[in-house]
Protein backbone atom coordinates (compact mmCIF):
# COMPACT_ATOMS: atom_id res chain seq x y z
CA UNK A 1 0.00 0.00 0.00
CA UNK A 2 1.41 3.41 -0.94
CA UNK A 3 2.01 5.88 1.83
CA UNK A 4 0.76 9.43 1.37
CA UNK A 5 3.26 12.04 2.49
CA UNK A 6 1.80 15.11 4.15
CA UNK A 7 3.66 18.24 3.03
CA UNK A 8 5.67 20.05 5.72
CA UNK A 9 3.68 23.24 5.16
CA UNK A 10 0.53 21.44 6.29
CA UNK A 11 2.25 19.80 9.23
CA UNK A 12 3.41 23.20 10.40
CA UNK A 13 -0.22 24.30 10.51
CA UNK A 14 -1.28 21.34 12.62
CA UNK A 15 -0.51 22.95 15.93
CA UNK A 16 -2.89 21.39 18.35
CA UNK A 17 -3.97 22.29 21.86
CA UNK A 18 -1.76 20.46 24.31
CA UNK A 19 -2.65 22.57 27.30
CA UNK A 20 -2.70 20.74 30.58
CA UNK A 21 -5.82 19.79 32.41
CA UNK A 22 -6.39 21.98 35.46
CA UNK A 23 -4.97 20.61 38.70
CA UNK A 24 -5.75 21.68 42.23
CA UNK A 25 -2.98 22.22 44.80
CA UNK A 26 -1.77 18.89 46.16
CA UNK A 27 -2.18 17.72 49.72
CA UNK A 28 0.76 18.51 51.91
CA UNK A 29 0.27 15.65 54.33
CA UNK A 30 0.72 12.15 52.87
CA UNK A 31 -1.45 9.24 53.93
CA UNK A 32 -0.98 5.51 53.61
CA UNK A 33 -3.46 5.37 50.77
CA UNK A 34 -1.94 5.45 47.28
CA UNK A 35 -1.56 9.05 46.03
CA UNK A 36 -4.05 8.48 43.25
CA UNK A 37 -6.31 11.53 42.90
CA UNK A 38 -6.05 12.98 39.44
CA UNK A 39 -7.47 16.30 40.57
CA UNK A 40 -5.43 16.07 43.79
CA UNK A 41 -8.38 16.97 45.97
CA UNK A 42 -8.61 15.30 49.38
CA UNK A 43 -10.85 12.23 49.53
CA UNK A 44 -14.35 12.87 50.74
CA UNK A 45 -15.95 10.85 53.49
CA UNK A 46 -18.76 9.75 51.20
CA UNK A 47 -18.63 7.76 47.99
CA UNK A 48 -18.98 9.77 44.81
CA UNK A 49 -21.60 8.21 42.56
CA UNK A 50 -21.28 8.15 38.84
CA UNK A 51 -24.00 10.16 37.12
CA UNK A 52 -26.54 8.22 35.03
CA UNK A 53 -24.68 9.18 31.85
CA UNK A 54 -21.35 7.82 33.11
CA UNK A 55 -21.28 4.78 30.87
CA UNK A 56 -22.31 6.88 27.88
CA UNK A 57 -19.30 9.11 28.66
CA UNK A 58 -17.05 6.18 27.71
CA UNK A 59 -17.34 6.70 23.97
CA UNK A 60 -14.93 6.80 21.07
CA UNK A 61 -16.91 8.85 18.58
CA UNK A 62 -15.45 12.27 19.31
CA UNK A 63 -11.87 11.71 18.12
CA UNK A 64 -11.05 15.38 18.54
CA UNK A 65 -11.72 15.11 22.27
CA UNK A 66 -10.24 11.62 22.49
CA UNK A 67 -6.81 12.68 21.20
CA UNK A 68 -6.89 16.32 22.29
CA UNK A 69 -3.65 15.93 24.27
CA UNK A 70 -1.74 14.02 21.58
CA UNK A 71 0.45 15.98 19.18
CA UNK A 72 0.16 15.40 15.46
CA UNK A 73 3.75 14.19 15.30
CA UNK A 74 3.06 11.54 17.94
CA UNK A 75 -0.16 10.49 16.21
CA UNK A 76 1.72 9.98 12.96
CA UNK A 77 4.49 7.95 14.59
CA UNK A 78 2.04 5.87 16.66
CA UNK A 79 -0.03 5.04 13.59
CA UNK A 80 3.07 3.98 11.67
CA UNK A 81 4.54 1.85 14.48
CA UNK A 82 1.23 0.14 15.29
CA UNK A 83 0.70 -0.60 11.62
CA UNK A 84 4.18 -2.16 11.42
CA UNK A 85 3.69 -4.31 14.51
CA UNK A 86 0.42 -5.61 13.10
CA UNK A 87 2.29 -7.15 10.15
CA UNK A 88 3.51 -10.55 11.34
CA UNK A 89 6.33 -10.98 8.78
CA UNK A 90 7.73 -7.63 9.88
CA UNK A 91 7.56 -8.67 13.55
CA UNK A 92 9.27 -11.96 12.66
CA UNK A 93 12.01 -10.12 10.77
CA UNK A 94 12.59 -7.65 13.62
CA UNK A 95 12.70 -10.45 16.17
CA UNK A 96 15.17 -12.38 14.03
CA UNK A 97 17.47 -9.36 13.82
CA UNK A 98 17.37 -8.77 17.56
CA UNK A 99 18.32 -12.41 18.21
CA UNK A 100 20.88 -12.64 15.42
CA UNK A 101 24.66 -12.21 15.37
CA UNK A 102 24.08 -8.59 14.38
CA UNK A 103 23.53 -7.89 18.07
CA UNK A 104 26.90 -9.34 19.11
CA UNK A 105 29.14 -6.77 20.79
CA UNK A 106 31.90 -7.03 18.18
CA UNK A 107 29.59 -6.74 15.17
CA UNK A 108 30.02 -3.38 13.39
CA UNK A 109 26.33 -3.36 12.42
CA UNK A 110 25.17 -3.68 16.03
CA UNK A 111 25.01 0.06 16.68
CA UNK A 112 23.04 0.55 13.48
CA UNK A 113 20.51 -2.10 14.52
CA UNK A 114 20.22 -0.61 18.02
CA UNK A 115 19.76 2.89 16.60
CA UNK A 116 16.98 1.70 14.32
CA UNK A 117 15.29 -0.08 17.23
CA UNK A 118 15.66 2.96 19.49
CA UNK A 119 14.14 5.34 16.94
CA UNK A 120 11.11 3.13 16.28
CA UNK A 121 9.80 0.41 18.59
CA UNK A 122 11.84 1.39 21.64
CA UNK A 123 10.76 5.05 21.61
CA UNK A 124 7.16 3.99 21.09
CA UNK A 125 6.86 1.27 23.75
CA UNK A 126 9.44 2.43 26.32
CA UNK A 127 9.59 5.53 28.50
CA UNK A 128 13.33 6.27 28.31
CA UNK A 129 16.81 4.95 28.98
CA UNK A 130 16.83 5.84 32.69
CA UNK A 131 14.44 6.65 35.52
CA UNK A 132 14.93 10.41 35.15
CA UNK A 133 14.00 10.36 31.46
CA UNK A 134 11.06 8.09 32.24
CA UNK A 135 9.96 10.67 34.82
CA UNK A 136 9.90 13.29 32.08
CA UNK A 137 7.70 10.99 29.98
CA UNK A 138 5.37 10.66 32.95
CA UNK A 139 5.18 14.44 33.15
CA UNK A 140 3.91 14.56 29.57
CA UNK A 141 1.34 11.86 30.36
CA UNK A 142 0.27 13.65 33.50
CA UNK A 143 -0.52 16.78 31.52
CA UNK A 144 -2.95 14.65 29.51
CA UNK A 145 -4.62 13.33 32.67
CA UNK A 146 -2.93 9.92 32.67
CA UNK A 147 -0.52 8.45 35.19
CA UNK A 148 2.50 6.19 34.95
CA UNK A 149 3.54 2.82 36.32
CA UNK A 150 7.34 2.95 36.37
CA UNK A 151 8.93 -0.34 35.31
CA UNK A 152 12.68 -0.80 35.54
CA UNK A 153 13.04 -3.15 32.57
CA UNK A 154 15.22 -5.92 34.00
CA UNK A 155 14.34 -9.55 34.63
CA UNK A 156 15.77 -13.07 34.93
CA UNK A 157 18.77 -12.44 37.22
CA UNK A 158 21.04 -15.46 37.50
CA UNK A 159 23.12 -14.65 40.59
CA UNK A 160 23.19 -12.51 43.73
CA UNK A 161 25.47 -9.93 42.16
CA UNK A 162 22.93 -9.23 39.42
CA UNK A 163 20.10 -9.19 41.99
CA UNK A 164 21.92 -6.59 44.13
CA UNK A 165 22.57 -4.46 41.06
CA UNK A 166 18.93 -4.68 40.01
CA UNK A 167 17.73 -3.78 43.50
CA UNK A 168 19.63 -0.50 43.31
CA UNK A 169 17.75 0.26 40.09
CA UNK A 170 14.38 -0.43 41.71
CA UNK A 171 15.23 1.68 44.76
CA UNK A 172 16.31 4.54 42.50
CA UNK A 173 13.01 4.20 40.66
CA UNK A 174 11.17 4.81 43.93
CA UNK A 175 13.32 7.88 44.60
CA UNK A 176 12.56 9.30 41.16
CA UNK A 177 8.85 8.53 41.58
CA UNK A 178 8.84 10.36 44.88
CA UNK A 179 10.37 13.44 43.25
CA UNK A 180 7.63 13.67 40.60
CA UNK A 181 4.34 15.57 41.06
CA UNK A 182 2.00 13.90 43.58
CA UNK A 183 -0.26 11.27 42.02
CA UNK A 184 1.60 11.22 38.68
CA UNK A 185 3.08 7.78 39.51
CA UNK A 186 0.45 5.23 40.45
CA UNK A 187 2.77 2.24 41.04
CA UNK A 188 6.36 1.14 40.98
CA UNK A 189 6.59 -2.26 39.29
CA UNK A 190 8.97 -5.04 40.35
CA UNK A 191 9.78 -8.41 38.86
CA UNK A 192 10.80 -10.89 41.54
CA UNK A 193 12.92 -12.64 38.90
CA UNK A 194 15.15 -9.56 38.93
CA UNK A 195 15.94 -9.64 42.67
CA UNK A 196 15.96 -13.40 43.33
CA UNK A 197 18.04 -15.83 41.24
CA UNK A 198 15.94 -17.77 38.74
CA UNK A 199 17.31 -21.11 39.87
CA UNK A 200 16.18 -20.41 43.43
CA UNK A 201 12.70 -19.35 42.29
CA UNK A 202 12.39 -22.63 40.41
CA UNK A 203 13.48 -24.58 43.51
CA UNK A 204 11.05 -22.69 45.76
CA UNK A 205 8.21 -23.27 43.31
CA UNK A 206 8.97 -27.00 43.20
CA UNK A 207 8.93 -27.20 47.01
CA UNK A 208 5.69 -25.22 47.27
CA UNK A 209 4.02 -27.40 44.64
CA UNK A 210 5.09 -30.57 46.41
CA UNK A 211 3.68 -29.27 49.68
CA UNK A 212 0.38 -28.76 47.84
CA UNK A 213 0.54 -32.43 46.81
CA UNK A 214 1.63 -33.55 50.29
CA UNK A 215 0.57 -31.15 53.10
CA UNK A 216 2.83 -33.01 55.56
CA UNK A 217 5.86 -31.93 53.53
CA UNK A 218 7.74 -29.54 55.84
CA UNK A 219 9.14 -26.21 54.61
CA UNK A 220 10.95 -24.73 57.63
CA UNK A 221 11.80 -21.50 55.81
CA UNK A 222 8.21 -20.73 54.83
CA UNK A 223 6.64 -17.58 56.29
CA UNK A 224 2.93 -16.81 56.65
CA UNK A 225 1.31 -16.48 53.25
CA UNK A 226 -2.02 -16.54 51.47
CA UNK A 227 -3.19 -19.54 49.38
CA UNK A 228 -1.03 -19.91 46.29
CA UNK A 229 -2.75 -22.85 44.61
CA UNK A 230 -6.30 -23.92 43.89
CA UNK A 231 -7.66 -27.35 43.07
CA UNK A 232 -7.44 -26.42 39.38
CA UNK A 233 -3.77 -25.42 39.53
CA UNK A 234 -1.59 -27.76 37.45
CA UNK A 235 1.37 -29.25 39.31
CA UNK A 236 3.06 -30.98 36.38
CA UNK A 237 6.22 -28.87 36.66
CA UNK A 238 7.30 -30.87 39.73
CA UNK A 239 7.60 -34.51 38.72
CA UNK A 240 9.26 -35.91 41.84
CA UNK A 241 9.77 -35.04 45.49
CA UNK A 242 12.32 -32.18 45.60
CA UNK A 243 15.27 -32.12 47.95
CA UNK A 244 15.21 -29.55 50.80
CA UNK A 245 17.03 -26.27 50.28
CA UNK A 246 20.76 -26.49 50.80
CA UNK A 247 22.50 -24.18 53.25
CA UNK A 248 23.65 -22.05 50.32
CA UNK A 249 20.11 -21.86 48.94
CA UNK A 250 18.74 -20.90 52.36
CA UNK A 251 21.33 -18.12 52.50
CA UNK A 252 20.31 -16.95 49.02
CA UNK A 253 16.65 -16.99 50.09
CA UNK A 254 17.46 -14.83 53.11
CA UNK A 255 19.24 -12.35 50.82
CA UNK A 256 16.25 -12.28 48.44
CA UNK A 257 13.87 -11.68 51.36
CA UNK A 258 16.05 -8.79 52.54
CA UNK A 259 16.06 -7.22 49.08
CA UNK A 260 12.31 -7.40 48.76
CA UNK A 261 11.83 -6.15 52.32
CA UNK A 262 14.04 -3.14 51.63
CA UNK A 263 12.08 -2.31 48.48
CA UNK A 264 8.73 -2.67 50.26
CA UNK A 265 9.85 -0.44 53.12
CA UNK A 266 11.09 2.15 50.62
CA UNK A 267 7.65 2.19 48.96
CA UNK A 268 5.90 2.49 52.34
CA UNK A 269 8.07 5.51 53.19
CA UNK A 270 7.42 7.08 49.78
CA UNK A 271 3.70 6.24 49.98
CA UNK A 272 3.85 4.64 46.51
CA UNK A 273 2.28 1.20 45.99
CA UNK A 274 4.50 -1.63 44.77
CA UNK A 275 3.04 -3.94 42.15
CA UNK A 276 4.60 -7.38 41.64
CA UNK A 277 4.38 -8.59 38.06
CA UNK A 278 3.32 -12.15 37.26
CA UNK A 279 5.53 -14.37 35.13
CA UNK A 280 5.52 -17.92 33.74
CA UNK A 281 4.00 -20.75 35.77
CA UNK A 282 7.29 -22.53 36.44
CA UNK A 283 8.24 -19.75 38.90
CA UNK A 284 4.87 -18.13 39.67
CA UNK A 285 4.29 -20.05 42.94
CA UNK A 286 7.48 -18.57 44.40
CA UNK A 287 6.52 -15.10 43.12
CA UNK A 288 3.10 -15.36 44.76
CA UNK A 289 4.78 -16.54 47.96
CA UNK A 290 7.04 -13.48 48.06
CA UNK A 291 4.10 -11.21 47.25
CA UNK A 292 1.64 -12.58 49.80
CA UNK A 293 4.11 -12.91 52.67
CA UNK A 294 5.17 -9.29 52.12
CA UNK A 295 1.57 -8.11 51.81
CA UNK A 296 0.84 -9.62 55.23
CA UNK A 297 3.68 -7.54 56.68
CA UNK A 298 3.06 -4.24 54.90
CA UNK A 299 -0.61 -3.93 53.93
CA UNK A 300 -2.46 -2.10 56.69
CA UNK A 301 -5.75 -0.28 57.13
CA UNK A 302 -7.91 0.11 54.04
CA UNK A 303 -5.33 0.40 51.30
CA UNK A 304 -2.70 -2.12 50.18
CA UNK A 305 0.89 -1.10 49.50
CA UNK A 306 1.89 -4.47 47.95
CA UNK A 307 -0.16 -5.67 44.96
CA UNK A 308 -0.03 -9.06 43.25
CA UNK A 309 -0.93 -9.98 39.68
CA UNK A 310 -3.38 -12.58 38.38
CA UNK A 311 -3.11 -13.73 34.77
CA UNK A 312 -6.65 -14.56 33.71
CA UNK A 313 -5.70 -16.63 30.68
CA UNK A 314 -4.90 -19.36 33.21
CA UNK A 315 -7.70 -21.80 33.94
CA UNK A 316 -7.14 -21.56 37.70
CA UNK A 317 -7.01 -17.74 37.83
CA UNK A 318 -10.46 -17.04 39.26
CA UNK A 319 -10.23 -19.74 41.95
CA UNK A 320 -6.78 -18.54 43.07
CA UNK A 321 -7.99 -14.94 43.19
CA UNK A 322 -11.00 -15.85 45.34
CA UNK A 323 -9.00 -18.07 47.69
CA UNK A 324 -6.29 -15.45 48.26
CA UNK A 325 -8.85 -12.65 48.70
CA UNK A 326 -10.94 -14.55 51.22
CA UNK A 327 -7.87 -15.59 53.20
CA UNK A 328 -6.67 -11.97 53.28
CA UNK A 329 -10.09 -10.86 54.54
CA UNK A 330 -9.96 -13.38 57.38
CA UNK A 331 -6.53 -12.09 58.36
CA UNK A 332 -7.63 -8.47 58.14
CA UNK A 333 -5.17 -7.77 55.32
CA UNK A 334 -6.22 -5.36 52.55
CA UNK A 335 -5.10 -7.05 49.34
CA UNK A 336 -4.61 -5.47 45.94
CA UNK A 337 -4.47 -7.25 42.58
CA UNK A 338 -3.66 -6.34 39.03
CA UNK A 339 -5.74 -8.35 36.58
CA UNK A 340 -4.23 -9.06 33.17
CA UNK A 341 -4.95 -11.57 30.46
CA UNK A 342 -1.37 -12.86 30.33
CA UNK A 343 1.88 -12.61 28.41
CA UNK A 344 3.48 -16.07 28.22
CA UNK A 345 0.97 -17.99 26.10
CA UNK A 346 3.40 -19.54 23.62
CA UNK A 347 5.93 -20.71 26.20
CA UNK A 348 3.24 -22.08 28.53
CA UNK A 349 1.60 -24.17 25.83
CA UNK A 350 4.94 -25.41 24.57
CA UNK A 351 6.11 -26.52 28.05
CA UNK A 352 2.85 -28.29 28.84
CA UNK A 353 2.94 -30.14 25.51
CA UNK A 354 6.57 -31.20 26.07
CA UNK A 355 5.63 -32.65 29.48
CA UNK A 356 2.56 -34.38 28.07
CA UNK A 357 -0.07 -32.29 29.83
CA UNK A 358 -2.95 -30.09 28.74
CA UNK A 359 -2.20 -26.40 28.46
CA UNK A 360 -2.91 -24.41 31.65
CA UNK A 361 -4.37 -21.65 29.45
CA UNK A 362 -8.03 -21.37 28.48
CA UNK A 363 -8.85 -23.11 25.21
CA UNK A 364 -10.43 -20.06 23.58
CA UNK A 365 -10.01 -16.30 23.73
CA UNK A 366 -13.69 -16.14 24.61
CA UNK A 367 -13.02 -18.14 27.76
CA UNK A 368 -10.14 -15.83 28.64
CA UNK A 369 -12.33 -12.75 28.16
CA UNK A 370 -14.98 -14.30 30.39
CA UNK A 371 -12.44 -15.10 33.09
CA UNK A 372 -11.03 -11.57 33.01
CA UNK A 373 -14.49 -10.03 33.18
CA UNK A 374 -15.60 -12.37 35.98
CA UNK A 375 -12.47 -11.60 38.02
CA UNK A 376 -12.98 -7.88 37.40
CA UNK A 377 -16.56 -8.09 38.61
CA UNK A 378 -15.49 -10.00 41.71
CA UNK A 379 -12.83 -7.43 42.62
CA UNK A 380 -15.08 -4.44 41.92
CA UNK A 381 -17.73 -5.87 44.23
CA UNK A 382 -15.06 -6.55 46.84
CA UNK A 383 -13.59 -3.04 46.89
CA UNK A 384 -17.05 -1.46 46.78
CA UNK A 385 -17.87 -3.11 50.10
CA UNK A 386 -14.52 -3.27 51.83
CA UNK A 387 -10.77 -2.73 51.76
CA UNK A 388 -8.38 -3.56 48.94
CA UNK A 389 -7.64 -2.34 45.46
CA UNK A 390 -7.72 -3.48 41.85
CA UNK A 391 -5.88 -2.55 38.68
CA UNK A 392 -7.76 -3.59 35.56
CA UNK A 393 -5.00 -3.92 32.97
CA UNK A 394 -6.78 -4.48 29.68
CA UNK A 395 -6.59 -3.47 26.03
CA UNK A 396 -10.02 -4.92 25.34
CA UNK A 397 -12.59 -2.19 24.76
CA UNK A 398 -15.53 -4.37 25.75
CA UNK A 399 -13.88 -5.28 29.06
CA UNK A 400 -13.30 -1.58 29.69
CA UNK A 401 -16.94 -0.79 29.01
CA UNK A 402 -18.16 -3.65 31.20
CA UNK A 403 -15.93 -2.61 34.10
CA UNK A 404 -16.99 1.05 33.81
CA UNK A 405 -20.64 -0.02 33.84
CA UNK A 406 -20.05 -2.30 36.84
CA UNK A 407 -18.32 0.52 38.72
CA UNK A 408 -21.34 2.73 38.03
CA UNK A 409 -23.72 -0.01 39.16
CA UNK A 410 -21.83 -0.43 42.44
CA UNK A 411 -21.56 3.29 43.10
CA UNK A 412 -17.77 3.34 42.92
CA UNK A 413 -16.54 6.88 42.34
CA UNK A 414 -14.85 7.61 39.06
CA UNK A 415 -11.66 8.94 40.63
CA UNK A 416 -11.40 6.31 43.31
CA UNK A 417 -8.13 5.29 44.91
CA UNK A 418 -9.24 1.64 44.94
CA UNK A 419 -9.76 1.36 41.17
CA UNK A 420 -7.26 1.93 38.38
CA UNK A 421 -7.37 1.06 34.70
CA UNK A 422 -4.09 0.40 32.89
CA UNK A 423 -2.70 -0.17 29.42
CA UNK A 424 0.80 -0.64 28.02
CA UNK A 425 2.68 2.49 27.07
CA UNK A 426 2.26 3.02 23.34
CA UNK A 427 -0.83 0.83 23.04
CA UNK A 428 -4.60 1.24 23.32
CA UNK A 429 -4.43 5.03 23.42
CA UNK A 430 -8.10 5.33 22.52
CA UNK A 431 -9.17 3.18 25.45
CA UNK A 432 -6.82 5.00 27.84
CA UNK A 433 -8.06 8.45 26.86
CA UNK A 434 -11.67 7.27 26.61
CA UNK A 435 -11.60 6.00 30.21
CA UNK A 436 -9.73 9.09 31.38
CA UNK A 437 -12.17 11.44 29.64
CA UNK A 438 -14.97 9.55 31.40
CA UNK A 439 -13.27 10.45 34.69
CA UNK A 440 -11.59 7.18 35.66
CA UNK A 441 -8.01 6.85 36.83
CA UNK A 442 -5.86 5.44 34.04
CA UNK A 443 -2.17 4.48 34.09
CA UNK A 444 0.28 3.47 31.40
CA UNK A 445 2.73 0.63 32.05
CA UNK A 446 6.06 2.35 31.30
CA UNK A 447 9.22 0.22 31.05
CA UNK A 448 12.54 2.04 30.95
CA UNK A 449 16.24 1.23 30.71
CA UNK A 450 18.99 1.05 28.06
CA UNK A 451 17.91 -0.53 24.79
CA UNK A 452 20.08 -3.59 25.43
CA UNK A 453 18.57 -4.06 28.90
CA UNK A 454 14.97 -3.70 27.78
CA UNK A 455 15.45 -5.91 24.71
CA UNK A 456 14.01 -9.05 26.40
CA UNK A 457 10.87 -7.05 27.21
CA UNK A 458 10.53 -5.79 23.64
CA UNK A 459 11.06 -9.27 22.20
CA UNK A 460 8.51 -10.78 24.55
CA UNK A 461 5.97 -8.09 23.72
CA UNK A 462 6.50 -8.73 20.02
CA UNK A 463 6.18 -12.50 20.33
CA UNK A 464 3.54 -12.90 23.03
CA UNK A 465 1.23 -10.03 22.10
CA UNK A 466 0.81 -10.63 18.40
CA UNK A 467 -2.95 -10.83 18.82
CA UNK A 468 -3.11 -7.56 20.71
CA UNK A 469 -0.84 -5.82 18.22
CA UNK A 470 -2.78 -7.15 15.27
CA UNK A 471 -6.01 -6.07 16.95
CA UNK A 472 -4.69 -2.51 17.26
CA UNK A 473 -6.69 -1.71 14.14
CA UNK A 474 -9.29 -0.06 16.38
CA UNK A 475 -6.67 2.41 17.60
CA UNK A 476 -5.18 2.92 14.15
CA UNK A 477 -8.59 3.60 12.65
CA UNK A 478 -9.41 6.26 15.24
CA UNK A 479 -5.94 7.82 14.94
CA UNK A 480 -6.24 8.02 11.16
CA UNK A 481 -9.67 9.60 11.51
CA UNK A 482 -8.24 12.27 13.83
CA UNK A 483 -5.27 12.88 11.53
CA UNK A 484 -7.62 13.38 8.58
CA UNK A 485 -9.72 15.78 10.67
CA UNK A 486 -6.62 17.81 11.59
CA UNK A 487 -5.41 17.96 7.99
CA UNK A 488 -8.82 19.18 6.84
CA UNK A 489 -8.93 21.73 9.64
CA UNK A 490 -5.48 23.02 8.65
CA UNK A 491 -6.15 23.13 4.91
CA UNK A 492 -9.70 24.40 4.92
Automatic annotation (TrEMBL):
<feature type="domain" description="Proline dehydrogenase">
    <location>
        <begin position="184"/>
        <end position="468"/>
    </location>
</feature>
<dbReference type="InterPro" id="IPR002872">
    <property type="entry name" value="Proline_DH_dom"/>
</dbReference>
<dbReference type="GO" id="GO:0004657">
    <property type="term" value="F:proline dehydrogenase activity"/>
</dbReference>
<comment type="similarity">
    <text>Belongs to the proline oxidase family.</text>
</comment>
<dbReference type="GO" id="GO:0010133">
    <property type="term" value="P:L-proline catabolic process to L-glutamate"/>
</dbReference>
<protein>
    <recommendedName>
        <fullName>Proline dehydrogenase</fullName>
        <ecNumber>1.5.5.2</ecNumber>
    </recommendedName>
</protein>
<dbReference type="InterPro" id="IPR015659">
    <property type="entry name" value="Proline_oxidase"/>
</dbReference>
<dbReference type="GO" id="GO:0005739">
    <property type="term" value="C:mitochondrion"/>
</dbReference>
<keyword id="KW-0560">Oxidoreductase</keyword>
<keyword id="KW-0642">Proline metabolism</keyword>
<keyword id="KW-0285">Flavoprotein</keyword>
<feature type="region of interest" description="Disordered">
    <location>
        <begin position="25"/>
        <end position="44"/>
    </location>
</feature>
<feature type="compositionally biased region" description="Low complexity">
    <location>
        <begin position="25"/>
        <end position="35"/>
    </location>
</feature>
<dbReference type="Pfam" id="PF01619">
    <property type="entry name" value="Pro_dh"/>
</dbReference>
<dbReference type="InterPro" id="IPR029041">
    <property type="entry name" value="FAD-linked_oxidoreductase-like"/>
</dbReference>
<keyword id="KW-0274">FAD</keyword>
<dbReference type="GO" id="GO:0071949">
    <property type="term" value="F:FAD binding"/>
</dbReference>
<comment type="function">
    <text>Converts proline to delta-1-pyrroline-5-carboxylate.</text>
</comment>
